[in-house]
Design brief:
Layout (H helix, E strand, L loop, with lengths): L5 E5 L3 E8 L5 E6 L10 H9 L2 E6 L8 E2 L10 H14 L6 E4 L2 H12 L6 E5 L7 H4 L5 H6 L1 H5 L3 H9 L1 H12 L7 H8 L7 H12 L10 H8 L8 E6 L20 E6 L5 H4 L1 H15 L1
């Protein structure tokens, strides 16, 4: 697959690097990746959507790839309100009118946040793991031991030993997560290495560690973003058209997320796909078809 040039655009907070596919005048789509992945998770999805007439924007999230903070004094926050606002600021900077958002992992969380807080700015949503807005209060309660074991990396990141592990052994740690979260997906060294370059960002460790420590309540978030976090704590419904997806073999989401349907009050479909956590890269046609479905609803 041909490598697309990396472009960038400035917002108040970030110089956001992104890859674009499709016609300049196409219907806009923003596809957001998670941890520990990058824009290459959407390579095949973007080709399918571009052929369907979409203008596809794939940003490197804060702390990944060539994306950089505009100021050395800005808090290296990884919290959900920051990442959701980044999507809105990216859409504004690129003058995208009501884009469809798609995401998984951190990207699904950020896309849900953007759709919930700024529904008038968003056309529709494709969300892996359904209503993926983090309830901070629930994160402080224990879950089943089998699931706590799957969450080992989150517990590790609460310690300075975990920070050191991510700093010194990020490639081994991240590859292990790829393998554990997508147990039926066979990927080669080149596929992992293509995305792993994004983990060399100088803010990668700080953003990742802050994300997981703030979720557990062990580090404060950005005070300027607290009003957004307060709104998210109210678990706002999502008004825009949504297709939600579960991966049938994702150990992070045992049992799936079909029960989240009540949080979507507009047109909504839920789909289960034979894939693990990195669904866009494992089953690109299924993810692309979900985006096209939302586009069809929008007319």
């Amino acid at each position: 697959m041909d490598e697309q040039p990396v472009r960038s655009v400035d917002t108040d907070t970030l110089r956001i690097a992104y890859v674009e596919r499709g016609p300049a005048g196409g219907w806009p789509v923003i596809l957001s990746h998670g941890f520990p992945y990058d824009v290459h998770a959407y390579d095949e999805v973007a080709v399918i959507l571009a052929e369907a007439g979409a203008k596809v924007i794939m940003p490197y999230t804060r702390g990944f790839g060539p994306t950089r903070f505009m100021s050395e004094f800005t808090m290296r926050s990884g919290q959900q309100a920051a990442r959701g606002r980044d999507i809105i600021e990216l859409a504004d900077a690129l003058e995208l009118k009501r884009p469809i958002l798609g995401g998984f992992d951190w990207g699904g969380n950020a896309s849900c946040v953007a759709a919930a807080l700024w529904p008038d700015r968003i056309g529709g949503l494709v969300s892996y793991a359904s209503y993926d807005i983090i309830d901070m209060s629930e994160q402080r309660s224990a879950v089943a031991p089998a699931l706590e074991r799957v969450f080992w990396y989150q517990h590790l990141f609460q310690t300075e030993r975990g920070r050191g592990c991510l700093t010194e052994n990020r490639l081994d740690l991240c590859r292990l997560l790829w393998e554990e979260w997508s147990p039926c997906w066979t990927f080669d060294d080149a596929t992992f290495a293509q995305s792993a370059r994004s983990f060399d960002n100088p803010d990668f460790v700080d953003v990742v560690i802050h994300c997981y420590r703030s979720v557990f309540g062990f580090e404060a978030g950005d005070p300027a973003l607290q009003p957004f976090e307060d709104r998210l704590a109210e678990k706002p419904e999502i008004l825009v058209p949504v297709v939600t997806i579960d991966g049938a073999s994702d150990p992070l989401k045992p049992g799936g997320t079909a029960s989240h349907a009540r949080k979507f009050v507009g047109p909504h479909e839920h789909r289960i796909v034979d894939a693990g956590h990195n669904l866009p890269q494992e089953a690109p046609e299924a993810f692309a078809n979900a985006v096209v479905r939302v586009h069809d609803w929008l007319g």
